[in-house]
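__Protein archive entry__

___
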Amino acid sequence: MNYFFDQHFHVMNIEHPNLLSFFASLDTGIPDLITSGAFSPSYILTPKNRRGSLMLDRITNTLTTFDQPIGQTLALMEDDLMGKFASHEKDSPKPEKPFIRDGKMHMRNREYDKMAMCPLLMDFSSTDISKESLYYPPRKTKKILKYAEDTLAGFDWYRENHTDGLFEFYPFIGITPPAHSIEFIEELLETYVNKDHKQNSQFKQGKKKFYGIKFYPPLGYDPWPSDAKEKDKVTLIYEFCTEHDIPIMTHCDDQGFRGVSPKDAWKFTSPTTYKPVLEKYPTLRIDFAHYGWQYNPMHKNPLSVLSAVANKVPDSPWFYELVNLMHSYPNIYADFSFSGANRDFYVQLNTYIKSLEDSKAETVLERSIFGSDFNVHLLKVESYNSYYRMFEQSPFGDDEVHSFVQTNPMRFMGIVE
């Protein structure tokens, strides 16, 4: 089967996030939110988004996708690629033809029979967020269970209602280890994760339809904790993934939903934090999402930024930490999700790769994967369709684009036809 992969996106409704956990992480108030970099001009509040009512439109457009069942959102995504919605932005890239037409997905000079869709479930299960100042004590919840069941139901709805649809699903189950006992984590893995993922068991009966593990460090996941009990939990997951060759996806930019302080979120998210993990488990398959992009100027050396701008290359330290991991370990990847909402990202990445010697350039090209980060990217772009259009117009060659959407993700996922 000839697949086109969206390796990174999210579908959820308003029940699934944990807003209590988010607000509990803001103990220091608005200054904490500001210093975190959430208001950095290159993150959400871009010069374009600050014009008129566009930011409000972006937020409303994003919330629309939370206000319906997951299956309907999946159908909406496919309908968008089929050209069923009209753009309302004058400077939005206009497609000459829909991406999905004549029963195929089209990108550049190639067509694809199916779209391999990899929804990432974030484990919003709460850790201890109790505070003496609260009148009503919040209850501890295991939100990942309801989220997983709703996602599987969404797949069934999509198949029943889009019988000719191109989407096939390869989801990743979220785990936030500090929120659970080691027994619960073991049960979660045994219940939901498909150990036979190397064969396409797309329609396997039961709940074992998850092909990978999703980590989200800002929710409290420390890749290599000092606490012995917490280390036992992550070790259990790493050993399970190593034994069954299960891929891992981890959030890797300095923004996003948080359940801990910015300082802890940054410490847990940095690619360098994974070094002791990879020293012990060097064959782990890990995709570092968002290509290690950093928006907070606090993370950047001003002189390095000036040099990066002059040379049109990335200015994020985490980007270079990540690339170093690619050169040191055989199964380290990075995806374009959300970062690709900025046209300059593709230009900078392409320029950087061209500056490398051939063998190192080849490594980076072979470890790069397309991902959209729908629906989060709607805060920066008008639609799922427009995100694809920006990727199509990137400076990469046709063969490189094909590698990003098929060859590389197939290798990362370990799927064999």
